[in-house]
Structures are given as structure tokens and as C-alpha cells.
Design goal:
119 residues; mainly alpha; 6 helices
């Protein structure tokens, strides 16, 4: 699973925060959808077996956000939790056939909201 998470952390310069967030959020949405069952098991694991891995992913994603949005006044860790929570919810909706039917629309609107947070 490390390889999958690493695959969305692109080592490139983005022209704008929108460019960065569109790439990251859309890649994260695909990653979450393709790995939902593993992610879900990891979140609900009571043994603590995956705790270190999840902590590492969280730190890695937070560092990635800090690197690409260095001038924003946001709390980067909270920003990562917000994105992760939304991605998980959207993936669950898609997986279980919930009430949302235009996922791309909601992802675009979410990106717009994230941009409002960093302005």
C-alpha cells in the first residue's frame, strides 16, 4: 500500500494552488476508490497493526501539503484530515451506491472550497 500512496505525491512544481489541489485531490479520489476496502480495514483495525503505517501516511501527506502550499495560513494537518475524510466519504458513497450520483461535480466543488480556505 505504500507504493499506492507514494504514487500520488508528485515531485513537480505546480503553477497555482488550484493546479496542485486539482491534481492531488483527483489522484487521491482514485486512490481511495481503488483501495477502499484496504483503507477501511486499516481504519477499523483494533489491533494497532496498521497504526504506524497510517501515522506515516498522515505525516507524509501533511509534509506534501506544506511543501506545495507553503504560504497558506491553514493548519496543514487539519487540511489533510479534511481532504482524507471527504475522499473516504465519497469513495464509500460510490462503493455502496449512495445518494450522490455526480461525484466529479462534488469533487470540483470540494476543490473550490479548499481554495477558499487557503486564500
Amino acid at each position: 500500500m505504500h507504493r499506492e500512496f507514494d504514487s500520488i505525491l508528485h515531485d513537480r512544481l505546480y503553477e497555482t494552488p488550484r493546479d496542485f489541489l486539482e491534481t492531488f485531490v483527483k489522484d487521491y479520489a482514485v486512490l481511495m476508490e481503488e483501495n477502499l476496502e484496504i483503507y477501511d480495514l486499516t481504519l477499523h483495525d483494533k489491533s494497532g497493526k496498521f497504526e504506524h503505517d497510517m501515522s506515516q501516511f498522515f505525516k507524509q501527506f501533511t509534509g506534501y501539503i506544506e511543501k506545495n502550499l507553503p504560504d497558506s495560513k491553514i493548519d496543514h494537518a487539519t487540511f489533510v484530515l479534511t481532504i482524507s475524510g471527504f475522499m473516504y466519504t465519497i469513495a464509500l458513497e460510490k462503493y455502496y451506491g449512495g445518494i450522490l450520483d455526480n461525484f466529479e461535480y462534488f469533487i470540483e466543488k470540494f476543490i473550490d472550497n479548499l481554495l477558499t480556505c487557503i486564500e
